[in-house]
Amino acid sequence: MKIFYDENIPYAKEFFSDFGELVPFAGRELTAEQVKEADVLLVRSITQVNEQLLHLNTTLKFVGTATIGFDHIDQAYLQQRGIVFTNAPGCNAISVAEYVLSALMVLVERLNVNLITKTVGIVGAGNTGTRLSEKLEALGINYLLCDPILKKAGDSRKFCSLDEIRKCDIISLHVPITKNNKHSTFHMFDQLVLAELSNKQILINACRGEVIDNQALLQLKKNNKGPHLVLDVWENEPNILTELIPYCQLTTAHIAGYSLEGKSRGTEMLYQALSKLLNKPVEMQLGKILPKAEITCKNQLSDNILDIVKQRIFDVYDVRRDDEIFREQLNIKSFDYLRKNYPVRREFSALELSAQQCWSETLKNLGFNVKS
Ligand SMILES: NC(=O)c1ccc[n+]([C@@H]2O[C@H](COP(=O)([O-])OP(=O)(O)OC[C@H]3O[C@@H](n4cnc5c(N)ncnc54)[C@H](O)[C@@H]3O)[C@@H](O)[C@H]2O)c1
Ligand SMILES: O=C(O)[C@H](O)[C@H](O)COP(=O)(O)O
Fold first, then answer.
1. Domain span including residue 206
2. CB 313 within 8 A of CB 343
3. Which atom of ligand 2 is nearest to the CA of 257?
4. Which atom of ligand 2 is nearest to the CA of 43?
5. Are residues 246 and 97 part of one domain?
6. Erythronate-4-phosphate dehydrogenase dimerisation domain spans which residues (predicted)?
7. pLDDT tens, 154-175?
8. How far is CA 260 from its chain centroid?
9. Pairwise CA distance, residues 212 & 326, whole Å
10. For the chain, what is the domain count?
């Protein structure tokens, strides 16, 4: 069996060697000729999987993307060919939620904001939106959820409209990119919507770049208007609108979901799905492969709970590191290079803390590994 896998899929060898011959490829460079003998194709979000790529192949049985997003997959075509498809729902939801939290902690300091008095509007209450809401709840920060699809499906949580979200102090986007349906998200934040946001609000996009009209955003910022921006994702990646970068408070190369755990969980989920398809026992576990984290805790300088939480969050993940790399290196290295060579980042759960202090419960609820 020939298993073609994107070279950016972590632990592919560990998980898939027993299934057959492994053939790595560069995500944006895979051709129909190369993939014509594949039995299994494992991708990330930068490979377009469609008839154009697969028309020479007659052997493919399984396509897996080690990501939640599947806008790069022509599912109808795969179905028509009888090829089993799976994505990796939730694999990186914690990673994105921790990215957002780290960004909020930076902006609290920089803009002198009292988070406890603010409301966060979460658009999309799926895996990531939910993880984020849980972390905000742990901190006692007010939030609103907008997800008309889940509301209609009978989700018992309280939902609000997008109009209400637009009035929130902080808006965080966690929807898939969709076009031509009732709940399309393409340019959900277009010129008209953006123009109504104030320069006191914060807009965070860590889902798909095309949810915000980037050109409209740039025009607004050039006129000294519009919200504070945290942008992890961009229209037209990897050829992004670099003029927007100086107008962002924090800006990164689509790495919100790139914790080691987040990326590797995607691999593990594909391994589980392929094992099921081939009736093989699930013997490998990510927990046994992941290295022990090396995280140094800085001394906490205050007894204020939010200050302590902020310090522990920065100990594990300070988004300013990625923001600096992006601003300094994007002129020299490509967008894809920065993603491919992303430094190791761990999730809060990788930091073991003792449960002696009164704020331990809060840290535990945020996802830190608190031992009693
Ligand atoms: N930056 C990154 O590294 C990164 C990482 C993970 C996911 N993502 C992106 O973020 C998206 C969300 O991730 P997720 O794991 O939460 O996915 P998910 O599928 O679990 O949740 C998405 C939610 O959005 C809702 N939704 C769809 N259209 C909507 C609309 N018009 N208004 C409000 N809600 C709507 C859906 O009902 C669903 O509940 C993914 O599709 C992916 O594109 C980016
Ligand atoms: O959809 C997802 O899961 C995320 O956007 C993910 O971080 C994409 O990463 P990539 O496949 O581009 O490496």
1. 93-251
2. no
3. 7
4. 11
5. yes
6. 306-367
7. 999 999 999 999 999 999 999 9
8. 12
9. 20
10. 2
The first and second tokens of residue 26, run together, are 């560069």
Ligand 2 binding pocket (C-beta < 6 A) is 8, 44-46, 67-69, 92, 257
- pLDDT confidence of residue 358: 67
Ligand 1 mean position, distance from CA 207 (Å):
6
45 lies in the same domain as 133: no
Structure confidence at residue 301 (pLDDT) = 74
Question: Residues 155, 243: one domain?
Answer: yes
Nearest CA to ligand 1 atom 10: 207
Nearest partner of 252 among 235, 221, 237, 231, judged by Cα: 231
Which one of 43, 70, 87 terminates a domain?
87
pTM of the model: 0.97
Question: Which residue out of 45, 95, 174, 335 has the highest number of ligand 2 atoms within 8 Å of its CB and is therefore the one to mutate?
Answer: 45
**Span of 87-101, 204-218, 226-240, 348-362 with lowest mean pLDDT:** 348-362
**Cα(30) to centroid of ligand 2, in Å?**
17
Residues 100 and 174 in one domain: yes
Tokens of 268: 């593990």
Is pLDDT above 70 for 266?
Answer: yes
CA of 99 to the centre of ligand 1 (A): 15
Picking from 71, 87, 103, the residue at the C-terminal end of a domain is: 87
Check the annotation: does 124 bind a ligand.
no
CA distance 196 to 147: 21
67 assigned binding-site residue = yes
The verdict on residue 363 lying in a domain is: no
Instruction: Please name the residue ranges forming H helices in the chain.
Output: 12-16, 51-54, 75-81, 93-111, 127-139, 148-152, 162-166, 191-195, 214-222, 260-277, 286-289, 305-316, 319-329, 335-340, 360-366
Find the CATH number of the domain harbouring 197.
3.40.50.720
Whether the predicted pLDDT of 67 surpasses 80: yes
Residue 216 lies in a domain: yes
Of the bound ligands, which one is closest to the alpha carbon of residue 27? Answer: 2
Specify if 142 maps to a domain.
Answer: yes
According to DSSP, the β-strands at 40-43 and 170-173 are unpaired
Residue 257 marked ligand-binding: yes
Would residue 245 count as lying in a domain?
Answer: yes
Contacts of 26 (CB under 8 A, 6+ apart): 6, 7
Q: Are residues 103 and 242 in the same domain?
A: yes
Tell me which residue has its CA closest to atom 10 in ligand 2: 45
Q: Active-site residue numbers?
A: 208, 237, 254
